[in-house]
TrEMBL record:
One of its GO terms (molecular function) is antiporter activity. This is Protein TRANSPARENT TESTA 12. Signal peptide: none annotated. The chain crosses the membrane at residues 20-43, 63-86, 98-120, 163-185, 192-214, 234-265. The keyword Transmembrane applies. Pfam families: MatE. Keywords: Membrane, Transmembrane, Transmembrane helix. InterPro entries: MATE_fam.
Length: 278
């Protein structure tokens, strides 16, 4: 009898866990696939373009993405504590505080996008790949700020178990991304520039849809509008964000290091293209 009760409790807990985890996994897959789709369409343009976008996404964008995800991860801890303590009204303050910190971090990361070409050349990457990657990263600077807005929104929604809305928005965004790439990159031939602009549009559609959901009145206790209280205790929030970012970055930067080393090989374009498939 006792074993049956234990099994029943485990089953109930598992259902509750997967109710949040499954849509969160789908959301991550959909959002990751946005860049994957971009690489797929750019791969039909040329070998250099494929190698360049692989380096740009996995070295420069990957660096910025991991930093911003880490900085936004502090919100996960604080929102969970606030919900557990019954202080749901603090969630709106926390997300605004996280936007401020992530926005400032994104602004500090802009030079890595603007000066991608000389940075890659300093890392002894091929000149042709560095030049094309440098142009691409300058075009996708708006995506950097989309990441800064996206991660706090995700943590806010996850803390209140409103994950399916985020999954639906990301899924629609991915479908739209595929359609726009097919029209503008494949059919109309706008090339790498078109792929970059479509990426910007897709990410900001996702952000605006999530923000609209946030302010639509679905969270009357958690979101009460913008407040100057968001600027309080910024220093403590930054410390927690930096600790989260450090742990996450150490986990994901190994692939960036591998890609840079691959760029030093004799036939770098081919080797980097192979890495894009991996």
């Amino acid at each position: 009898m006792g074993k049956m009760v234990l099994v029943g409790k485990c089953w109930q807990e598992s259902k509750l866990l997967w109710h949040i985890a499954f849509p969160a996994i789908l959301t991550a897959v959909f959002q990751f696939s946005i860049n994957f789709v971009t690489v797929g369409f750019v791969g039909h343009i040329g070998v250099v373009e494929l190698a360049a976008i692989t380096v740009a996404q996995n070295v420069v964008e990957g660096f910025a993405y991991s930093v911003l995800l880490g900085m936004g991860s502090a919100l996960e801890t604080l929102c969970g504590q606030a919900v557990g303590a019954g202080q749901v009204d603090m969630l709106g303050i926390y997300i605004q505080r996280s936007w401020i910190i992530c926005g400032a971090t994104a602004l500090a990361l802009v030079p890595t996008y603007v000066f991608t070409a000389p940075i890659l050349r300093a890392l002894h990457q091929p000149a042709a790949i560095s030049a094309v990657a440098g142009r691409y990263t300058r075009w996708v600077v708006p995506q950097l700020f989309a990441y800064a807005a996206n991660f706090p929104l995700q943590k806010f929604l996850q803390a209140q178990s409103k994950v399916w809305a985020m999954t639906f928005i990301s899924g629609v965004g991915l479908a739209l991304h595929v359609a726009l790439n097919y029209v503008f990159v494949t059919r109309l031939g706008h090339g790498l520039f078109g792929a970059a602009m479509i990426g910007n549009v897709t990410w900001w559609i996702i952000i605006l849809a999530q923000f609209t959901y946030l302010v639509s009145g679905c969270f009357p206790e958690a979101w009460k509008g913008f407040s100057m209280l968001a600027f309080n205790n910024i220093a403590a929030f930054v410390k927690l964000s930096l600790a989260s970012a450090a742990m996450l970055c150490l986990e994901v930067w190994y692939y960036t290091a591998v890609l840079i080393l691959v760029g030093l090989l004799k036939n770098a374009q081919l080797e980097v293209d192979i890495m894009s498939v991996w």
